[in-house]
Every structure is written in structure tokens, then in C-alpha cells.
Amino acid sequence: MLAAILGPFLFAVVVPLLFRWRRNRVGWWVAAVPLALFCWFTRYIPSVAHGAVLDFPYRWAPSLGLSLNFRLDGLSLLFALLITGIGFVIVVYSVRYFSGHPEDPLDNFYVFLLLFLGSMLGVVLSDNLIALYVFWELTSLASYLLIGFWFHRDPSRYGALKSMVITVAGGLAMLAGFVLIYLVTGSFSLNEAIRQGERLLSAPLYEAILVLVLLGAFTKSAQFPFHIWLPNAMEAPTPVSAYLHSATMVKAGIYLLARLSPALAADPAWFYSVSLVGLITLCYGAVMAIRQTDLKALLAYSTISQLGLVTSLLGFNTPLAAAAAAFHLLNHAAFKGTLFLGVGIVEHETHTRELPRLGGLARELPLTTTAMALAAFASAGLPPFGGFISKEMFFAASLAVAGPWPVRLYPFLAVFGSIFTLAYSFTVLFKVFFGPKKEKVSTPAEKSLVMPGPALVLAAL
Fold first, then answer.
1. 238 in helix, strand or coil?
2. pLDDT by residue (tens digit) across 178-198?
3. I need a labelling partner for 296 at 20 to 30 A (CA). Which of 163, 245, 305, 392 fits?
4. Cα–Cα distance between 13 and 6 in angstroms, integer?
5. Quick check: bond before 384 cis, omega within 30?
């Protein structure tokens, strides 16, 4: 397991050498890393599906009694497969996306992407809270470098700095929460914290632990009011937006909530804070998405909204809600990744992302239109797509929660947010690809499968 996590870091050292040797082929070499890791993780699906939990201990500093432990269970395997599988798709897509731009430092891009991939694997596989924090901040550093990839642009530098400041500040709060967990349990082990959940709940430090951990999770997953960094992060290249801001990094906070919920979620403070913040984020992001004219800004707010949906499910803290959260994580990674890749193709071919300037692209981009239609229908929650099933589970979970009169509003908030979800999903599809043709900077065309192919793969999921 240590080799799987360190592999991307080690290969990142080789990328500059490969770039000098075969600049035009380096993307395909890099794509082999997430593909190999994805295949390696699939070996564990049968055993983990039957309830096995695999531990991988490594002696770190024996004289100090420190060890580096990794743990593979259903939750961490789901995230590991998303990180590596979608990582492979994104790298393949980037080969065509950056073609024709020799001025871009692609060796830097692939180095930063590999650093991020390895860091995310470290986050979801670490059983040690300090190791998790180190990998957590490495994801912030890698995302800063990726968002600011086009560093000659002022908006890119601003977006990178803004995301760095907010997520690192949240990470420091989370670290303080981890230290308090250690003071209560006497261990930095995640598994031990979960085992001593009742002790944490009854400890005088519980409220402080909850607030600090939630600050880390909410800032990373762009929950209201900490969402303000995500729209500015859309200045990154589209492969970065599709990978970091729909499928992986923004879900690190979701992973933290899901991982610590067995230890912290039995208290009403968890229920009210997490569920309410999630539902507010769901509704706010959906309303803001429908107001955007820039396609990536629209997708940014829709991502905020969908992350709010999953957060609220984790706040409900019921078996149905937990299953719905895990399933919607998979669905969202597939349909939102497709939407980002489709928007990237539109921008690559027409040189614009502005809705008023787009329309009637279905004939010129039939494969992209197909992928975007499948993704939009799944995002809107239409049957028989996966998004329909996970949203039905979401509605059922919101109806099942009990509490005072404000809690009875939860199903109405869930429906309200979902109405706007349908609206912005159809806005992307029909305004861009159907209707009358509008001004185009250039004539779009699908010259190969390298760009629409990855979008079709995710759409098929």
C-alpha cells in the first residue's frame, strides 16, 4: 500500500526527464500511473465487498513509538477507485486539451497532477490522523499549483491564492481538532477514535472537537459560507476543474465527515450543524448556478450544490442516508466530470464559455452532445439514470428524519434545491447544443476521440 501512495510522487520526479525526451508522448506515460493503480485497487473489491478491512502497518519511528498505518475498507476503496479511475480519464483528456499550446509548461502540469493524486490517496488511506493532515495539506499545495497553472493570468493567481488561504486555514483548525481527539483517546489512530466514540461524545472537549473538525471539512468541500474559493478556482484549466473540483479534492471534506461520523455523529449537535449547512449549501448553490452565464461558473456553483446534498445526507446519520451519500458520490463524479469535460471541449473548439454566444452545436459536436445529454439527465435526476436513484434515496432520507418543526422543512428544502438542479442541467444542455446557432469564434469539430472519448466513458458510468 505504501508503494501505491508513493508511486505517483516517485513518477513525478521522472516526468521532467520524459518531457525532454518525448514531449508529445509524456501524457500517455503519465496516464499509465493512475491506470495501473486503478487496476491494482480493483483486486481488493471482492474481499472488501464481503466486509474485509485490510490494515497495512509500517514502522515509522520505532524509538518514538510511531508507525505509519494505512487502512482499506469500503469507504477508502470507493475513494481510491474514484481518484485513480477518473485520474486516468482526465490525463487522457488533457493530451488533446493542451495540444497546439507549446507555450504551456506541460511537465509542470503532470508533475502537479501526480503530486495531487498521491496526496489524495494518502488522505483516504491513512489511519493516522497526523499522516492524514500532512497529505491533506499536500492536496492544498498541489491544488494551488494546478489552479495557478496559467500563472501569467491575474485571475488564475488570485483563484489559486484564495483557495490556498481558505483550505489551509480550515486544515489548521482540523489539526487542532485532531490534537484534541488525541488528548481524549490517547491515540492518533482513526480506528481508535472510532472505537472510543462514546468517550469522545461524553468528553468536555466534544464541542470543540466537532467545531474544529467541521471547519476543516466545510472549507475543503466548499460548504456555505466557505464556498467562495471554488468559483474563482475555475480559472484553472478544464482538466483540473474536472478532476479536483468535481471528483476528488472537494470530496476530501466529505470523506472526513463520513470517516468520523461513527465517532462524532450520535450527538444532536452533529445532526443540526451538518444537515443544516448541507441543505443551505444545496439550495444556495443551485440558485446561484442558474444565474451564471459562464459555463464553468455555472458548473462551479452546481458542484457546491451537489456537495451540499451529500453533506446533508451525512448529517442525517441514518443507514439509508449513508448509502445514498456513497452512491451519490459515485454518480456526481461521473456526471459532473462529464459536464466539465464537455464544457472544456466546447471552449477548446469555440474559444468561449459564455452562454449568450453559444447554441446549435449538436450537429458539429455529436459525440460531445451525447455525453452531455446523458450527464445532464443524470444530474437532473431523470430515470433510469443513477442520479435518479440516489436523489430518490435523498428524498426518502430527508422524509425519515425526525425532530422539531424546523426539521420538518428538510424535505421541502431538498425538493427546492432539486428543482433548480434540473433547471441548470437543462440550461447547459439545450442552450449550448440545441436551438438557433449563434456567434462562433471558430467552426467547432470533433477531429478525434481523445477529447470526447473520456467524456463518453464517464457518461456511460
1. helix
2. 999 999 999 888 999 999 999
3. 392
4. 11
5. yes
